[in-house]
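Case 199 in the screening queue. Each case pairs one protein sequence with one candidate compound; here the compound is S-adenosylmethionine. For every case the pipeline is the same: read the inputs, emit a complex structure as tokens, and attach any notable structural observations.

Predict complex for case 199.
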Amino acid sequence: MESVLNETSSTERKPEKKSYTGYIITGTLAGIVFGIHLIAGPFITPALRRVCLPFVPASEEQVDNVFRMLKGRKGKFVDLGSGDGRLVREAAKKSFTAHGVEMNVWLVLYSKFKASREGLSSKATFSRTDLWKHSLQQYDNIVIFGVQSMMKELEKKIIAECKDDVRVVACRFPLPNIEPEAEIGTGVDTVWLYKIPKM
Ligand SMILES: C[S@@+](CC[C@H](N)C(=O)[O-])C[C@H]1O[C@@H](n2cnc3c(N)ncnc32)[C@H](O)[C@@H]1O
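Case 199 output:
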């Protein structure tokens, strides 16, 4: 009898312990993929736009060349595609009222953070805006560090929207049809200064 009882208990199924390991691993992996997508996405999407304009920060020499070109100028300054905000913050330090237009949300947040750390928040502002949809009417000084494929279309936009006596500084790639007033720097650090003819 005892042996029958023992047999029964030994074949009795123990309640299965539920394992959550699989869920935890899957959840963690999904979280990592989502995080990478969230952070890297804004840096990758420029490649999918009509004009591919990736984030390449201006070199120190380029920054220097831009402000050598704008020496003696004042008023409102805009950087079209402001990246990490280095040109806009430098413009604010040089007493311009400066604005950066940038599509990448992380770069906008970083630029605002840096401007606030440097006490420049009132003179250096940033918005997450498409440069093609941003009106240029209010600016006295426009800076663009673009790519060659966009310069013809941008030139048209500048001519159509800018006010009198504006100055445009193009970094690395010149405007295709307007004769520059000045050119400084060499190679990738070359910048061109333009006075825009009114139609
Ligand atoms: C070559 S980087 C120049 C960065 C900055 N101006 C500098 O000189 O350090 C171009 C920037 O334009 C931004 N960008 C690309 N397409 C844009 C668009 N349609 N509107 C606004 N910003 C854009 C990119 O995210 C990138 O930060």
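Case 199 observations:
- The pocket of S-adenosylmethionine is lined by residues 46, 53, 55-58, 79, 81-83, 86-87, 101-104, 107, 130-132, 145 (CB under 6 Å).
- The helical segments are 2-11, 21-44, 60-69, 86-93, 105-117, 148-161.
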